Amino acid sequence: MKLNVKVLGLPELQAEIDRTTAELRAAEDPAQMAAAVPILEAWRSRVPVLDGNYRDSLTIANLGVKGAAVGTAWLGEVPREEQPVMYAKRLEFGDSTMRPQPSARPALEATRQQAAEAGGDEFRSVVRGRKPRKRRLT
Q1: Are 114 and 107 in contact (CB under 8 A)?
Q2: pTM value surpassing 0.85
Q3: Shortest CA distance to 40 belongs to which of 56, 51, 53?
Q4: How much of the chain is in helix, strand and coil states, percent to nearest 5?
Q5: Which of 26, 33, 37 has the alpha carbon at shortest distance from 126?
Q6: Which are the contacts of 37, defined by CB distance < 8 A and separation ≥ 6?
């Protein structure tokens, strides 16, 4: 038995798939950034140092298709040896002269659900037509 099938409207279907794909991709970055905000805020609140350099260096970087990253950034006015990027690992994990003072891992664990909800909310909102929120990271 031979069956012949003719699909009508294939170009329109492809155009709709392309449009939907573009809308979903446009919502990815804002959703990833929204998910990172609760983690950043929780991390900043847990930083164990008093000088503020470490806290001030924490930021969110948009990595595009790879997501968003929360971490330390280089502070231009701070000498190299005092850059948080140089001692963040030592604070988080400790070494032979210092006990660990973790702040990143507890922040992530404490906000995992909140981050997922924030990202999901932003994704749904953007897909439904609202412009992505402009986020002020202070």
Answers
A1: no
A2: no
A3: 56
A4: 60, 10, 30
A5: 26
A6: 60, 115, 118, 135, 137
Q: Where are the beta strands (DSSP E) in 55-122?
A: 58-62, 68-72
pLDDT (tens digit, 9 = 90+) per residue, 113-135?
Answer: 999 999 999 999 988 887 766 66
Q: Report the interhelical angle of 104-127 vs 10-46 (nearest 10°).
A: 150
Amino acid at 11: P
Looking at the chain, how many residues does it have? Answer: 138
What is the C-alpha to C-alpha distance for residues 5 and 41, in angstroms, rounded to an integer?
57
Q: DSSP for 38-74, please give it.
A: HHHHHHHHH---SSSHHHHHEEEEE-GGG-EEEEE--
Q: Is the dihedral of CA 10, 11, 12, 15 positive or negative?
A: positive
